[in-house]
Design a protein that fits this description.
alpha+beta, three-stranded antiparallel sheet, 1 helix, 3 strands, elongated
């Protein structure tokens, strides 16, 4: 089976008083998953907005990735494939090093 698909991710960022918030929305065409991320600048650190953007956005996208993995796990279970209930060992899911 050959398929070509395009999924889009939109990331919205906002910053207020040293706190950056991100919302990432994955649109698959049939479903949308929304993730959130926050980054705060410590008072002793220099205020570099780009770093806050990167941290908040990456956390929001990691949230979406976790949700997507949960959806895939449920679909695998419904199809009679994948692991049973309980923790999922690497390399099937995210290892502790990347979580």
């Amino acid at each position: 089976m050959n398929r070509t698909m395009e999924w889009t991710v939109r990331v919205d960022l906002s910053e207020d008083d040293g706190t950056t918030k991100a919302e990432a929305v994955l649109d698959t065409g049939t479903a949308k998953l929304t993730g959130h991320g926050v980054a705060r600048c410590s008072p002793q650190d220099p205020d570099v907005p780009t770093i806050g953007d990167e941290l908040a956005a990456s956390r929001a996208m990691r949230d979406v990735a976790g949700q997507l993995m949960s959806v895939a796990d449920r679909e695998l279970g419904k199809a009679g494939a994948g692991p049973g209930d309980g923790p999922v060992p690497p390399p099937y899911a995210w290892s502790d090093a990347t979580a």
